[in-house]
Write a structure and sequence with these properties.
Blueprint lengths: L3 H13 L1 H34 L8 E6 L17 E2 L1 H9 L3 E11 L8 E3 L2 E3 L2 E5 L3 H4 L2 E6 L4 H5 L4 E5 H7 L10 E4 L2 E11 L13 E5 H7 L5 E2 L1 E6 L5 H15 L10 E5 H44 L1 H9 L4 H40 L14 H27 L3 H6 L2
Parallel strand pairs: 6-11, 8-10
Antiparallel strand pairs: 1-13, 1-14, 2-12, 3-6, 3-13, 4-5, 4-9, 7-10, 8-11, 9-10
Amino acid sequence: MFDRDSWQEIFHTLKKNKLRTLLTAFGVFWGIFMLIIMLGSGAGLENGVTSGMGNFATNSFFVWTQRTTIPYKGFPRGRWFEFKNDDIQALRNNIPEIQYIAPKIRGWSAGDGSNNTIRKNKTGAFSIMGEYPIWNKIDPMEMLKGRFINDNDIEQLRKIAIIGTRVQELLFEPDEDPIGEYIQIQGVYFRVAGVFKPLNTNIDFGGEKEQTIFLPFTTLQKTYNYGDVVGWFSFTSEPSVPASLVEGKVLQFLARRHSIHPDDEEAFGHFNLEEEFNQMTGLFNGINVLIWIVGIGTLLAGVIGISNIMLVIVKERTKEIGIQRALGATPARVMTQIVTESVFLTVIAGYFGLLIGVALVEGVNYLLVSSGSTNEMFQRPEVDFNIAITALLILAFSGALAGLIPARRAVRIKPIDALRDE
């Protein structure tokens, strides 16, 4: 619809009003620039918070025992009770919505203050945990060497140990391969079968994971005379079932099984990661909505500025528009010309704002990566490509809207009146 002369006319008009054009275009530039910066910062904050969770199952929850607070079935209040091995199969048989169940038991904690592990002339205080193989599905970890606990270890009560990276650093030489070597834990020897690096650093059970030693659950029970006691349970729900629903069923079942009053809410300690994750997701969704509201508001101010300058341009070109109409220019052609000028100005200003905003976000990301920053609250600021394209489309649409009012005013000018205009 536009020939070369039409485009030259657009450039001539914008050049003639250079100062006002630059000031108005800066409003659009600043609006899209700030929107991109805020979106990138929001993504960096979300990545920082969620990356510390690694691949931890977000549909998981945890249950442990506490003192009872209500007397029930002849038992007094303040009673201690414990989970047992037979609870494991009972839970599997009676609650089909459970996907994974991982019994856990802690032998010692790194925070106890006394050394519990020896290798040759080196000692250390570490968290000693009894685990089932399924735990690696709930809280996946990277196996740097060897393997994790398997079903044969559980069935045969094998004396093997899976150690964290910090344990390896403290007990072994830098160039020494720990696989197949023996460590002594509270007087009992265990062969190292694997070295792991935690992927999740925000959720701990019993201390820093790098300073943790995992033993087969049954081996820890038998070796250190824990009988059939289970420390606590970790669960995940089936993918289509909310963890809170399964958690409620588990608590009710365990309460009946261990003669706990149905209204005794203090008898069990429990933590639902799905609820925490949903709250965090809702928080970041709210932040993103706020960012878009502020960003679009800023863009709207710039677009209004574009509309105003186009009104001024139309007024200055009243006589020129009259001549065009007198020579046969249709109203549609005049409107298209005004709207195109508005879209052109808006998109060009927005493009540079988008370009510089993305460049700044990527530059910050590059600096964080190259510096080796491990800030858990801010990582990998980024702007989604689809969002960038959406922002440009919004700009083009906004530019068209900004040009409609001046364009309608231009076509309402009668040619005879326009020719008389001074």
